[in-house]
Amino acid sequence: MSPAIVSSPIAPPTHQSTPPPTHPDRLYVNRSTKAFASGAISLIDLPAGSLFAKITGTTPGAKAYTSVQTGRDTHIELNSDLVYCNHSCAPSLVFDMSRMEVRVVDDKPLHKGDALTFFYPSTEWEMDQPFQCICGSEECRGWISGAKTMEPAVLEEYWLNPHIAGLLNERK
């Protein structure tokens, strides 16, 4: 007779692990249990127009609420804490997908404690999940569905990625 093999069940994890930060010297992720309520906060001061971070470690992706459009028909997943940079109609950052870098907007410096935000239509022609903006800025544009549905005069107030500018020119 062979000895009985006793197996003990593996206990399920009692907490969900959080991946290590990807930009611990640059940003803090303010995590929320509410849907779409997490956000990124600057840990540093930088002058207007300066480089905040290079965009690295990405993977090709499909159009999704987590992806960023990089060209006419291409999207990437950021795979970093940069994904927590939310939309604002008065953004603190520019996501330059042609240079694969994130810069401070040209018209104001970034301060420690500032929310890290960018203007989604600067990268997105047509959003996967349009939404009612609640940024609270004087410039708030309301319904955000991508550059495709916005007036050119409004978009001229923002820095736009070359693929968005090209699509706007085609629309004319």
From TrEMBL:
Q: What keywords were assigned to this record?
A: Methyltransferase, Transferase
Amino acid composition bias (Low complexity), ranges on this chain: 1-17
* Chain intervals for the UniProt region annotation (Disordered): 1-23
Residues forming the Post-SET domain are 129-145
Cell division found in the keyword field: no
Among the record's GO biological process terms, what is one?
Answer: methylation
Where in this chain does the entry annotate a coiled-coil region? none
Please give the PROSITE patterns that the UniProt record associates with this protein: POST_SET (PS50868)
Q: Which GO terms describe its molecular function?
A: methyltransferase activity
Keyword set includes ATP-binding = no
Specify the protein name. Post-SET domain-containing protein
Q: Which organism is it from?
A: Penicillium steckii
